[in-house]
């Protein structure tokens, strides 16, 4: 922070902001995230329901909604992330990837919403009336999901990196709290205003949300400016040398390898809840989609209330400590859900408890990465973490679907409990190692020699 001519200026790299400029930056990034989060809520929430309407198994849902997207993430994320780190253009190094792929994401999201009608039309065209297009429609849904996920990964791989490039470091914790609030509000609006119509107006929901997303995200990209970057470090010629250098940079230091695995286990812990919580509420508890939406909306209100104070706590006590506290709370809360959730009231109570503990954890995740990863290779190290996460999720999503087929939807609480424990243990090791590397005052990323 610096004063020039009586005006307070904030700096991030070569970028300089007045208070008004910083406010403008926050507004556009938060608006983009609000619409991005609403769009990202649609497919995970409604596609399992769409598949169940065609009698798809939970294993099939796990593979289509989790394993295949995770495999795509494993392939696409490191390429896009590393390429983004090295991109130099008049738009910056992140904006080109955020600006040009959302139209394709929106297109396939719309097609996914109309897959029932498209599937019936082509089935009747090819095989005539009288049969059941269920299998053909499931294959069509799978194709649209894969295309949607593939294009969405370009944005998902890069969007979070831009914060480290344009937001002044002293505001990163508070910005991330506002960012989480915006995302929570997007999900809350979807749950409260849209979810009640999930079964009756599914095609319209997919279409409207996709159009809102592409228009708002384009506006954000045109109004957020990146600064100047130093030239990227030279790389050895040849694909083999580039890949070897990538893996040496990211995986030769145990500190980062263990951190990647610990964070990945946290994502593994939530796969069953992400895919089957709606089906648990509808099929086991007898809730309506409107009641489920209200539970999500109340959880969103709790998150909104907590994210801003959590931002101050993250800045004050360091995100690693807050993340560990969140993981410990997740472990303690899940047994309550398994034993005591039997109706709307207890499901609501559990939704509020989960909103609290995941707000604690989510408010610290990206600040943790910003604090611990090397700044000049931030995208590269994020992509390495995403690769580890994707490898585990390829197996975990299919295994989660099989697990639920075997034991039932209630056991999603057991899954979360079991896989959060290794996350906590590994991150606890990271915490003690971080202390030895300088901790709050002197930490420097332990790069390879």
Could you characterize the architecture of this molecule?
The chain has 449 residues and is mainly α. The chain has one domain: MFS general substrate transporter like domains (Growth Hormone, Chain: A), CATH 1.20.1250. Helix content is 78%, strand content 3%. The chain contains 18 helices and three strands. It has helices at 19-52, 58-86, 95-100, 102-113, 115-127, 134-158, 161-166, 172-194, 202-223, 239-251, 254-269, 271-284, 289-317, 319-340, 344-372, 378-407, 412-436, 439-442; strands at 2-4, 7-12, 15-17. A three-stranded antiparallel β-sheet has the order 1-2-3. Helix 1 (19-52) runs antiparallel to helix 9 (202-223), helix 4 runs antiparallel to helix 6 (134-158) and helix 8 (172-194) packs antiparallel against helix 15 (344-372). The chain is globular, with a radius of gyration of 22 Å. 49% of the residues are buried.
